Amino acid sequence: MNGIGVALSGGGHRASLFGLGVLLYLGDAGKLPEVTSLASVSGGSLTNGFVAQTVDLTRADDGGTFERAMAPFARQLAQGGTLFASWTT
Q1: Which of 21, 41, 49, 72 yields a CA-CA distance of 20 to 30 A from 66?
Q2: What Å distances lie between residue 20 and 13, 38, 69, 72, 89, CA to CA?
Q3: Sequence-distant (≥ 6) Cβ neighbours of residue 11 within 8 angstroms
Q4: Over the stretch 23-51, which tens digit does the pLDDT of each residue have?
C-alpha cells in the first residue's frame, strides 16, 4: 500500500497555519488524494479537525477547490487566532 502520511505538529495558531500551508502545497501538487493518514497534536489538530469536517481528501484533486474550502479557516486563524470565542467569554 502506497500513500502519503502527514503529521501536523503542535504550537498554536502558527502550527495550524503551517500545517494548512503544507496541505495547500500538496493540493497544488495534486497529491491530496494520495494522503492516506493525517495525524496531529495540539494546534495541528485544529487544522486536522477542520479538514476532516470540510473536505474528502480522496476526492480533493483540485488545489484551487481545496484552497477555497480552507479560506474561512485560514482567515479565522490569521485574524482571530485559535480562540474562536468572542472577547466577552
Answers
A1: 41
A2: 10, 12, 11, 12, 27
A3: 18, 42, 43, 44
A4: 999 999 999 999 999 999 988 999 999 99
